[in-house]
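User: Hi! Is it possible to get a structure for several chains at once, not just one? Here's what I have:
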Amino acid sequence: MTAGLPILDWPALYPVLLVTAACFACLLLDATPQGARPGVLAATSVLGVAGAVVVSLLLWDGPVRSFQGMLVADGFALFFNVVIGAATILVLLLSVGYLPRLGVAAGECYALVLFATIGMMLMTSGTDLLVVFLALELMSLSLYVLAGTFRARPEGHEAALKYFLLGAFASGFFLYGIALLYGATGTTNLTRLGTALSAPDATRNPMVLAGLALLLVGFGFKASAVPFHQWAPDVYQGAPTAVAALIATGSKAAAFGALLRVLIAMQALQADWGVALWMLAALTMTIGNVVALAQANVKRLLAYSSIAHGGYMLVGIAAGLGSGTPAVLFYLGVYAVASVGAFGTILLLEREGEEAVDLAAYGGLARRHPVLAFGFTVFLLALIGMPPTAGFVGKFYLFSAAIQRGLVWLAVIAVLNSVLAAYYYLRLIVYMYMREPEGAPTTALLTPAASIALAASAWVTLQLGLWPGPVLAMAQRAVAPLLP
Amino acid sequence: MLLSTLVWLPTLGATALLLLDRRDTRRLRQVALAVTTATLVVSGLLWIGFDRARPGMQFAEQRAWIPGAGISYHLGVDGISLLLVLLTTLLTPLCILSAWTQITTRVKEFLVAMCLLETGMLGVFVALDLFLFFVFWEAMLIPMYLIIGVWGGPRRVYAAVKFILYTMAGSALMLLAILTLYFIQDARTASFDYAAMMQLRITPSLQVPLFLAFALAFAIKVPMVPFHTWLPDAHVEAPTAGSVILAGVLLKMGTYGFLRFGMPIFPDAAVRLAPLVVGLALVGILYGAWVSTVQSDMKKLIAYSSVSHLGFVMLGLFTFTAQGLLGGILQMVNHGLSTGALFILIGMIYERRHSRLIADFGGLWAVVPVFSAILMLVTFSSIGLPGLNGFVGEFLILVGAFQWSWPAAVLGTAGIVFAAVYLLWMYQRVVFGELRHEENRRLPDLNAREIWTLAPILVLIVWIGVYPKPFTAVAETAVADLLQVVRDKRAAVPAAWHASGETTPR
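Assistant: Yes, the chains can be modeled jointly so their relative placement is included. Here is the combined structure:
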């Protein structure tokens, strides 16, 4: 074995490098004596991330490996780059008016969001468990800080501390899992891990199984799957809503992307992880939805709903590598857009100087802000899974994968959960359309950037509901080379 | 293109409505009425161009939609769906007319919802791709939910949520059954197309759970006892237009579903479970009638009478005889007309008196003779008086039922007697007798707009009663076709079952 200079294929890194450049630009701009205007920072960040999305689409043909096979820019990674990038852009556009309203110094917030985005993108392009871990830490550390942005409020502290402590535990589990897998197979590279596991009897090694289980726990935390979900509602509630939106969409997408990569590498153990994911999926959907029924705080409601949506996606993963995997990718995209839209609507509404997180604040909203209420309704219908929104198509593919695999009972649990979930989403629609306003008026603090973000999300949500074909084909092409 | 025009014209109208000024309610109403009338004209073209002798689907159009998954935009009508399309396009403009002065808040949103609702309903009746069908089936719930929940009575929110959750719960399992039907096909040619589903030879043991999954969705919609509890709430709380559409069209989606999907795709299960379905239908006929008898609220009385009348329809369909099926289909139309008219009439009197309680009326004949006369005709139609439309349908159903099993026919006949009891008793207490309430003395009679709203229905009530041939002729071929499919498939089952391994899910 000779030690040589590592061969660096820069193209694989272009998307991440663009975001990094934007990130440093934000830090520098903010370091000037008079500081930077939030608009400038936001524009820089959005340009960087949008550039990353465009480059990802350009790189689409042909996988590019880099850093001696530790990173890959294949269709799978690029699809996630697009989803994560889109979610980040939406969050950034929503933050423009939001951060100054909260009196938060903007510079470091934008930089941290971009750092988190870099972590998310790297998580799904890492083909070595150590790279995945490093990326996960980069994302998590940035998000821990962002979750504590409300320094003046006790909930802010609670959110940051809880997220940090539980996240640190999760990292520990994750690292321990990597160590066990390394001990059993002598590699942390996912490709070589797959080869090692395909040897006869390799899958019966208890160390391998324990390693897999620990990795699943780590991913379970990041994807807020039950029973590793307890941090999510408190963090979503205490963190600024824009950050909650990023945690609910970007970090969840990254966790699912990395999880899928690891499971694809460990397909020799599909019989084992299939069962585990079956149970995780059933528990996550059911507990998420049942607890969401009892929420009166809209942010907590969306937190539990986001947990439940993780459960639906786990159904797609439990359905095995095949039609389930592209369905998960498609659903992640749909869910990310609709979910950012829903968080974005909450973030724009204010009552008595406070964010409108109380259900009652939504009474008669359709009368006062008809367009905003309509947009919110579109997002909620997508989260319910009603046609003609994209949420229906997404669920349709997830459940069809389960049926194809013969997981009829899991599919039954999933559809019944969808009906259960309809109740609490409809309750918001009831408040907006069927009740009269009560108490202090709820005002909408629309900025042009936020309007663009919400309009774009609503448009995508409807567009993918009516013409899902192209994006679905993209998802299928993204996973096809990886599957057996 | 005719069918696409039919389905999407109301949506186009809804878009046009969105662009208009919300304060100019008169203009908004005129545009909505014009659009829905134009849709009625389009459906009239279908009626003229429809070849009554030809079996199978007509005016079919098919376009790729999501080709990778075997999903296409496929529309078509046969005699059964054509009648329901006409019923829908007729009732929608009448609803907009009936709401002319009744809906005064958020007029623009109401009219947009009505137009979108019409697209959804028409889509359900003409979709020939199960995915497309399901999309229309579910999407149609949203405008109906809003119509009940925003413009309804005091308990509207409860009724709206109950309505949508019941229906969604029912269709959830149907979605899984549709997916199963897709995956038992050959993977290379699998599609959600109706024709592909019709070719399937499914083992009887698999037919039963799949049929039950479909049947649950449809039975909730019909509604069959014991899945009917959403109906009285929804009908009573909905505004008049909502009640008319609910009773006139939405309930028919359930019976239509049985005809279009339940019976021909799962013939063995449908025939084997027919005693259960007929049993529930008979319970519905009698239970609905008895509960109607004791109602003090007119709207609630009519709501429960729908349970009874739809029981008749189900009885007719599941006799699997030509007469029973034809009677059931005709009765679907008849119920849409007469119950629709009853709801419109109750809405009119409610607008004047702000009460629907039977006890608040009495002696109306002297005050509002036109109203009373029309109510009499419609009540007789609902009872099934010979010479009016209800008689033809019920007669055919009972002929079918006698061939199937005479006790069922006897119980059904008893239901007709009870219908006479509760409807005539209501009519008597409302219209005859002394004028006991001072407030009723000055009620104005129906104005020209209101009479014109009801006139088309009254014409049809008499026309179908006297000369039903044009209406039965449309459906006869489709009914014969359906019976032939059921017979063929049932005859072929044992052989095909053993011959091919394609019948179990992969």
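Confidence is low (pLDDT under 50) at residues 498-506 of chain B. The interface with chain A takes residues 65-69, 131, 134-136, 138-139, 141-142, 145-146, 149-150, 156-157, 160-161, 164-165, 168-169, 172-173, 175-176, 179-180, 182-183, 505-506 of chain B (CB under 8 Å).

User: Great, thank you!
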